[in-house]
């Protein structure tokens, strides 16, 4: 007869556009029929939720309604524990900090196994939140990081046993990425003539993304007589300040703020190389997509960036908050176009070989079976 399908819940904060939400969708699409999948959220909204419905899932919502330090949080934990029991859920995979606040205690009350996803280095959290998250991870049955740097932090700084931490890199659907690239641009791009273009894809919500360093590097190149245009994809409350800085540095004519775009693959196709100059990262989907586009990526030596880019082979790696190093890396790529193309080809080959969706789903499948049903499942 075989075993019953494994009753698995994927729990994320919402289905607004973001790297975490996209990875959850890929798991929902890719996991085999040996699962009875359900979805839960804190907020049942966002442009990606239509794709969840199309897959046949109606997310169960456990809304926090503001601060987590209020009676409603305990009530949602209670509601979810009852829901897990009623649906005989065997395993919950929770993907973000706020959902973890509900999912881990609820799973423990219900007697359900729980896996926590850690997708960044908690760089945006204060001391109290980091302590809470660390405690919840120690309560969980297993923790998945998407980069070696996260695994290292969990073991050395937060005290988790190595046996309870796994690294599973994000996956990228190359055929779908290529299809989006072939669809072309969905909006106009600035005319840069024959000048080279660097693309930076990141939100403008938090200083960790350090778009300032990119602007300073461009200004240094301008001072030395090199014109390099930059397409900055993304938006947020920091954009006006960055636009002002570009003006002060004298690079407003070559720095183009594109805001949110849904045609990133087509934009990358028009770039000479890509960049991500953050001071902290998990496994960056922006870097993965740039590599999938066949671009050499210039990244900072933080978090999961070095899981993706091997310096001098698949791109260039520089120290964070060093605009002069960024400028020098740009000069190197511009001065050696054949080498740059070779690194871009190696980057794409790496994505196809190591970061396929099939590999990502297969590794999650094996871990789910082991945690929920034992090593011999």
UniProtKB/TrEMBL annotation:
Residues 17-174 form the Glycosyltransferase subfamily 4-like N-terminal domain. It comes from the Bacteria. Its EC number is 2.4.1.-. The keyword Heme does not apply. The keyword Transport does not apply. Keywords: Glycosyltransferase, Transferase. GO terms for molecular function: glycosyltransferase activity. InterPro entries: Glyco_trans_4-like_N. PANTHER family: GLYCOSYLTRANSFERASE. This is Glycosyl transferase, group 1. It comes from Myxococcus xanthus (strain DK1622). The lineage of its organism: Bacteria, Pseudomonadati, Myxococcota, Myxococcia, Myxococcales.
